[in-house]
Amino acid sequence: LDAPRQAPALRNLTLEELIAGLHNGLRHEVLEGNVGYLRVDDIPGQEVMSKLRSFLAANIWRKLMGTSALVLDLRHCTGGHISGIPYVISYLHPGNTVLHVDTIYDRPSNTTTEIWTLPEVLGENYGADKDVVVLTSGRTGGVAEDIAYILKQMRRAIVVGERTVGGALDLQKLRIGQSDFFLTVPVSRSLGPLGKGSQTWEGSGVLPCVGTPAEQALEKALAILTLRRALPGVIQRLQEALREYYTLVDRVPALLHHLANMDLSSVVTEEELVTKLHTGLQTVSEDPRLLVQVVRYQETSSGPEDETEEPPEMVSEVPEDEASRRALVDSVFQVSVFPGNVGYLRFDRFSDASVLGVL
Fold it and tell me: Which keywords does this chain's UniProt record carry (predicted)?
């Protein structure tokens, strides 16, 4: 294994030098749709975070606070400092109380250290109602893996990308005797983020919520955020449709309450949304006829003014000849007898009572 990068001596560095070094492993911008993007290639330790706290809050975090969702890109982050974990988690932790997020065992000192979120942050926490997506790759390792796993277990972030490397939190390079050979070994390990006991990401890696090649992870994340941005409107339109059209009016209040309190935090695809809505509404209504479906309309050659297929018109006149009448019946009604002597009748349009009387 390659030896980990050696941290520079920080005490002799000026603030300007620390900022310059930080820029090499940190990039941020606001993407289309008011989505914040923060790429972190190295997790600074507590000493750097403390010295640059005001700079980070004023020049980076403040610009991202106004966004409607955040993408934290850890695809190129292969390590970092354990002491930097609380700073990253704390700004994304929506709660007002400190949270125990991990316990780290250090073998050389045979000690354990509990990792807690900070009692307060400089500036503001990222809003609890805003989505966070973490991007990972097969190179994401060490401290970056721990951060991704903690945020996933907290249900604070959707992890998108590839399974992480499953490395170690801290590595140490040891000389073998007086030779020119060296051995790099793990010296620290996570005992289980968020008190999960023996469950940890080390060795197996962090499994993403949505698997996709790393180079396509940002595009996939933006598509997920577009869907999630539309969720409130979808729920509102469903509620309006139930109020106006559902005939079992005594069940409408329970259905509206169910929609208003649905947990959609894990929904990342259109298929998952439809399944969740369909199952939930049928369970509450006990009505198998209440269906939630996705209907896609294809564009026609008529141009943008005629993008959807018009429903069939209601029949208002009856042809005079018998052959035309039979053809009309066949175009309106579909009649079959299925195996088991099951009758099937389908009609897609209605007719006037006078027409039905003649037919």
Answer: Receptor
**Residue 53 and residue 15 in contact, taking contact as beta carbons nearer than 8 Å:** no
CA distance 173 to 181: 10
Distance CA(220)–CA(133), nearest Å, equals: 10
- Over the stretch 45-77, which tens digit does the pLDDT of each residue have? 888 888 888 888 888 888 999 999 999 999 999
Count: domains in the chain: 3
Residue 256 has pLDDT above 90, yes or no: yes
Torsion angle of C-alpha atoms 206, 210, 213, 216, degrees rounded to 10: -130
Instruction: Please answer whether residues 42 and 22 qualify as being in contact, where contact means their C-beta atoms are separated by less than 8 angstroms.
Output: no
Cα→Cα distances 209→194, 214, 248, 265, 352, Å:
18, 13, 38, 12, 54
Question: Would you say the pTM of this structure is higher than 0.85?
Answer: no
Q: Which domain holds residue 240?
A: 225-285
